[in-house]
Design goal:
Helices cover 46% and strands 7% of the residues. By secondary structure, it is mainly α. The strands form three sheets. Strands 1-3-2 form a three-stranded mixed beta sheet. It has a three-stranded antiparallel beta sheet with strand order 6-7-8. Strands 4-5 form a two-stranded antiparallel ribbon. β6 (145-146) and β7 (151-153) form a beta hairpin. α8 (171-189) runs parallel beside α11 (237-260), α10 crosses α11 (237-260) and α11 (237-260) runs antiparallel to α16 (348-361). The longest helix is centred in the middle third of the chain and has 24 residues, at 237-260. 38% of the residues are buried.
């Protein structure tokens, strides 16, 4: 291994953003990240939030010379960096247009480079590196629980200050992450990409989440939400419903994913449809009743069955048409796992932006403790 004189080795974390690694290298040398970033020639400006302020999910693409420079700065071989950093090796026209041999870099957002980006667990980062600094890593939603420290790691693309939620008081969240591994295996055996199964189940449950404010018998989610919000969401219920959603509904997402992969459940949907003698899906159908039971809500069946036009009824329709050998709607076909764009849940970042705009438009003075948009400087 080649070390430069006086260089401090800074190893990358698994699936870390290159931008995060650069920030950690700067911290190791006791300098500001922008000072270290001046070592590269930048082709564009860093991405910011709509209201201003730097994005935590900002990502960096480097040219060949830029990658060599990063390897020298952190004292780690390039092949190790290539395995750890998902953005490593990705280039674009902005980088290739420059002079050869000049370390160059271009800004992107992580989501546009290699998928969802979340904050890392600072306690785990401290254990690996000896320093409890912020890290940002690519992480799908089914890997957001730090089981060791009981933390749900939040999306890094939203303009809000929290990096994690404390889920030690809701052990079913970590238990769901352990169960997901078996669900993913079942999906793979069935020839379905696990990510697609998760996405559909997530859309189904996120839709329920929006409707649950009107469910008089719903008790599980309010208890979980208040627990994750530190014991009581208080006057900030609107904000906590946005920030907590993915953690609070995660057990149900995994349960729904498992149910949709169960051939016995598909058989119930087929029976509800009249099997060989087609009939409209009934409000008291066996499929939705059983699905409600599988998510711990025996009363949910009729509510789910009559939610027409959502991702769940779209899945049922595709399953039934496949059994009948009938054609599907134009452009959608009969793929049960196809998730229409209009069914995809709004992200935490998008919901917070809408909430901030809505609150800013209210003429009345906000009560103490209500949701406030954090001020930040221009993009």
């Amino acid at each position: 291994m080649t070390h430069h004189p006086g260089l401090l080795r800074t190893a990358p974390l698994p699936r870390e953003t290159t931008s995060s690694l650069i920030c950690r290298i700067a911290s190791r040398y006791g300098m500001e990240a922008k000072v270290l970033r001046s070592c590269w020639q930048w082709r564009n400006y860093p991405p910011g939030h709509d209201g201003g302020g730097a994005r935590a999910d900002a990502e960096v693409l480097l040219n060949v010379a830029g990658r060599q420079l990063l390897a020298d700065l952190c004292g780690v071989e390039e092949d190790i960096l290539a395995r750890a950093l998902p953005s490593w090796g990705q280039e674009d026209s902005k980088l290739s247009a420059g002079r050869n041999g000049v370390p160059a870099a271009a800004w992107r957002t992580g989501g546009a480079v290699a998928g969802p980006v979340a904050f890392g667990c600072r306690l785990c980062t401290a254990g690996r590196t000896g320093t409890a600094v912020r890290a940002v890593q690519y992480a799908p939603r089914w890997e957001r629980v730090c089981v060791r420290h009981g933390r749900w790691l939040l999306d890094a693309d939203a303009d809000q200050p929290l990096e994690y939620l404390d889920v030690r008081g809701v052990p079913e969240v970590a238990a769901a992450q352990r169960r997901w591994a078996k669900v993913a295996q079942r999906a793979a055996r069935a020839g379905v990409e696990p990510a697609r199964v998760f996405a559909l189940a997530y859309a189904v449950v996120a839709r329920w989440w929006e409707q649950a404010l009107h469910w008089e018998r719903e008790a599980l989610w309010p208890r979980r939400l208040h627990q994750v919000a530190g014991g009581n969401a208080g006057t900030e219920l609107e904000r906590w419903r946005i920030v907590d959603r993915d953690a609070v509904v995660f057990p149900e997402v995994v349960a729904v994913a498992a149910a949709l992969l169960d051939p016995a459940m598909a058989e119930l949907a087929w029976t509800d449809s009249g099997a060989g003698r087609p009939q409209p899906l009934p409000a008291d159908g066996a499929f939705c009743r059983r699905l409600g039971e599988r998510v711990g809500r025996g009363w949910l069946g009729p509510l789910a069955a009559t939610d027409y036009g959502g991702p769940l009824t779209s899945w049922m329709g595709a399953v039934i048409r496949l059994r009948r050998g009938a054609g599907g709607p134009p452009a959608y076909g009969n793929d049960p796992w196809w998730l229409r764009q209009e069914h995809q849940p709004a992200s935490m970042a998008a919901q917070l932006r809408v909430s901030c705009r809505r609150n800013a438009a209210r003429p009345a003075r906000a009560p103490r403790g209500a949701l406030r948009c954090r001020p930040s400087s221009g993009r």
